[in-house]
Structures are given as structure tokens and as C-alpha cells.
Design brief:
mainly beta, single chain, 5-stranded mixed β-barrel, 4-stranded antiparallel sheet
Amino acid sequence: MERTRTPVVSGWFTGTEAGGDFRLLGTRCSACTAVFFPREDVCCRNPRCPGDGRLAEVPLSPRGRVWSYTDGRYRPPAPYVSDPAEPWEPYTLVAVELEAEGMVVLGQAAPGVSVADLAVGMEVEVVDGVLNEDAETVWTTWRFRPVEVRA
């Protein structure tokens, strides 16, 4: 039986199908051109916005530069699934300044990428990843991977 691939948060990214163009999805205000991620669907959050703008979905830059990074050496709280009976493995968090937008987005590094593989200013790309899986569902999310690393 093939498992269903389901985004952890609907509408935050696209391209999780095999061979798809994986991109984070944000929104842009037509009045002030501010871009938001996570997406904003109600009103512009820019305090300098003149108002009366419409928010439209936009794909965000597929690449950016490492702004900061660290390793997580604790079990994360819900909604992340963490079985206390299983051995714990640290994970790597990366803050990435997206190429065109200039905004910083936080996410986990791709599997196999540790803090030893990263450097501030290094070019990375956003890729699809798996947060959790069970017998019926693969819960998908985004990850960051150095551009020169190919899976």
C-alpha cells in the first residue's frame, strides 16, 4: 500500500510530488510589496503599509545563504513526534536569508547535514523533507541543504 504524502502545514510549500519543483509559499502585499512567511491571508503585517493592498500567494526563493545555525540536543515538544523509548539523535537547525526576499526562514537541515557542514554565508537550497511517517501517511516539511550536496 502506498502511503499518502501530506504537508505538515497545508499551504506553506508546494512540489512534494516526485520530481516536483519544491518551493516555500509566502504572500505578497500589493500595496507595499512586503512578503510574508509563514503566509498571511488576512491583512498586511507591515506597520508602514499604506493599506488597501491585496495579499497574493508567491513562491519564495529556492536558495539563500546561511544566516545562522545550531544543533538541537533536546527532544522537541508537540507537534513533533518523539518516542521516549527510542534513542535521541540531535538535529541541525538553519536560519536562511532567502535570496530575493531578504527574509530569514528557519528550518531543519537535510538528513546527513550537521553543524560541521555549515558556515555563515554558505549557499543553501530548500528541499522537501519528512517530519514523521506512520503506516498510512508521510508527513512532509521543508529542509535546507548546502547547494553542493546532492542526495
